[in-house]
Specification:
By secondary structure, the chain is of the alpha/beta class. It has helices at about 1-20, 25-30, 70, 90-100, 110-125, 160-170, 190-195, 200, 210-220, 240, 245-255, and strands at about 80-85, 105-110, 130-135, 145-155, 175-185, 210, 225-235, 260-270. It has a single domain, classed as 3-Layer(aba) Sandwich (Rossmann fold).
Length: about 280
């Protein structure tokens, strides 16, 4: 039953992000990660401003992020970088500006429409060291120990089995490699109506888990030097909340401390990770 539910969630997210690949960027930015619940109150509920970063391509920016993981990822020239949930390719192209022509960037996404859009963008830019692979980040289409750096922007929260993603992430990183991931986490309970809303799920809010559980999955996967690089509260505007809550429920929700946060977290795979038990060899 759990496996069946996870597949239903994945299919819902896949369908939603297929629609997002074709819709207006402004709609994505004014909603909760492209949920379709358009807000007139604010422009960017979650996403940060990419426009000043080298490698930024407006055609690849769908306004779906909740941070700037590439800015914190410590990418060096010649690195192999992997982007989980690469969308139209924005973070991949920014990573390419860091790793240079001697490096390699691989984007993984499970939505065919996103892969097609990303490949078109890469072709227009003439990048021959950026590739996009169709695949599930719970079972990445990559060999072990090949990535120097992994980045991801507001994607893992959409995945039902987050623990499996971090285990896979550990597998594909080289010993001594690291990741920088921006994601949505919770520090309390969301109202049940928001938590169960399909649009908000595909919009990356209701699928978020407790911050301590999230960091615990990272630690249990074997990562060290776990560091919060950035943390900011996410304020959901009234004109989105009213789609799910009545006036009294909105008042109660807003009277409590903010529970939705965007975090950017960094962690390393130990350099001495070379035992069969660890899965590194």
């Amino acid at each position: 039953m759990k496996m069946e539910n996870e597949e239903k969630i994945k299919e819902m997210v896949r369908q939603k992000y297929s629609e997002i690949a074709l819709q207006d960027k402004g709609l994505n930015q004014s909603s909760c990660c492209g949920s379709g619940s358009c807000s007139k109150e604010v422009y960017n509920i979650m996403s940060d401003d990419y426009t000043e970063l080298q490698g930024y391509d407006p055609n690849a920016d769908l306004g779906l992020g909740c941070g700037l993981p590439t800015q914190f990822a410590k990418i060096e020239k010649g690195n192999t970088v992997v982007d989980l949930g690469s969308g139209a390719g924005n973070d991949c192209f920014i990573a390419r500006a860091e790793t240079g022509e001697t490096g390699k960037v691989i984007g993984i996404d499970f939505t065919p429409a996103m892969i097609e859009k990303a490949r078109e963008n890469a072709d227009k830019l003439g990048y021959n060291n950026v590739e996009f692979r169709l695949g599930d980040i719970e079972k990445m289409p990559m060999t072990s120990n090949m990535a120097d750096v992994v980045v991801s922007n507001c994607v893992l929260n959409l995945v039902p089995n987050k623990q499996a993603v971090f285990q896979e992430l550990f597998r594909v990183l080289k010993p001594g490699g690291h990741f920088s991931i921006s994601d949505i986490v919770l520090t309390g309970r969301l109202p049940e109506k928001i938590q169960s809303a399909a649009e908000m799920y595909a919009g990356c809010v209701a699928s978020a888990i407790d911050k301590n559980d999230y960091l615990g999955y990272i630690q249990s996967a074997g990562f060290t030097d776990i560091t919060l690089q950035k943390e900011k509260p996410i304020i959901v505007p009234d004109d989105i909340l009213k789609d799910y809550l009545n006036e009294e429920e909105i008042r109660i929700y807003k009277s409590n401390p903010t529970v939705i946060f965007s975090i950017t977290v960094y962690a390393e795979k130990p350099a001495n990770c070379c035992t069969p038990e660890s899965g590194c060899c």
